[in-house]
Amino acid sequence: MKAIHDPTGALATGLAAIRQQYQVPQGFPAAVLEAAARAAQRAPTAHVDRTAIPFVTLDPASSTDLDQALWIEQAGADLILHYAIADVAWFVDDGDAVDAEAWKRGETLYLPDGKASLYPPALSERAASLLPDGPRPAVVFTVRLGTDGTARLDGAQRAMIRSRAKLAYDAVRDDDLPPAFAEYARRVNAAEAARGAARVDPPQQEVEGLGEGRYALAFRPPLPSERQNAAMSLSANLAIAAALQQAGTGLFRVMAGPDAKAVARLRSTAAGLGIAWASGDDLKTLERRLDPANPQHAAFMLAVRRAGNGAGYAPWVPGAAPWHEAIAATYVHATAPLRRLADRYVIRAALAVASGATVPAEVEDAFQRLPAVMARSGALSGQIERAVIDLAETVMLQGRTGERFAACVTDAEGDSARIQLIDLPVVARARIPDAVPGQTIDLRLESIDPAKRRLTFVPAA
Hints:
- By secondary structure, this protein is an alpha+beta fold.
- It folds into two domains: 2-256 and 310-395, no CATH class; 399-461, CATH 2.40.50.140.
- It has twelve helices and 19 strands.
- The strands form six sheets. A five-stranded mixed beta sheet has the order 2-9-8-5-4. A five-stranded antiparallel beta sheet has the order 17-16-15-18-19. The protein has a three-stranded antiparallel beta sheet with strand order 1-12-11, with helices on one face.
- Helix 1 packs antiparallel against helix 12 (361-396), helix 6 packs across helix 7 and helix 8 runs antiparallel to helix 10.
């Protein structure tokens, strides 16, 4: 992590410009706030009492929009995950003002100086959020995990739950969590490897707000607690996906793998980075050996991310088998309804399927319309994230024009190379003749354009 020295306030000014450029919503229209305030007072009447289960949440310390609470029990050789998900649909009706605004937004947008939430704070950070300050309505999924890591949906119901603790990734202790938490994650991860999945989790380039107008730029690998918690969500989403697929309904998360040309380029990148890749091994075999703490491996993981075709959403189609290549399974998003619009409808479908009811027509209709909405919001989120990082890089390097920096080429096409500075968390492009992935090179910072958030590097003489 590198603190950003910004005496002129260029970062704050640049963030404001990014919000304007990408039309990031500032607050909510009055009618939406009023509707959310009324909805927040809605008394749960369709929820069974599950407040005796000692649920806990596990999130970044600063989070207040808490989608998930969990508890795990032993049932013979199986493990039972009680996974409580915020019951957003209880508060939001089809076609009301809150719903209409959510369809415009698609997902929560995050910037280091604040977020543009999918739902107003009266819901997303209070009434619907699974905070540990009183009972909350939730949808509780019961997921049975076998010794082989296979997850099955045993049931789903609306319930009142009470979180016992708001745990943070960077401070949680083993004894804060359910006793079987680590074993549950181990089984899920073992099942991933057995079915040939290969989730690539390189260190994320992030801009972090430190408070009082201070920021930092960092490459941050996932914490062990984050990886384990992700296994809970993964197992629930796999179990829900299987149930929906069997019932002939749903909205699935789909992704194709890199094509043959992209894999050939990745082989060149691996060779340049000094990563051994046997000719008989496929990409997934190599991915399972990568260590994000190794700089060469991390650079390659970023190259793999860029080589993929990207993930999207697809509704159930008769005779089709929706597939997510990285997860090597049929998969849905159902565990973050406060932050993603699509999840609210997948949860409603899962509730119907679990109870033997017909999926509501408005949910089936939403499954047809959501792929385009989520693609648009996902693209916007990615553009904003990249713009914020580009801005932070230019601010951090202010006053250093003309300096030399050691860099590593992580990807190249012709003379256009993507480079990563060795001593700073900066990724940029440079014009390098005959660039080869993996080569190290001294570059000179030729110019900085904060307005366009652009760094220009050239080979040092």
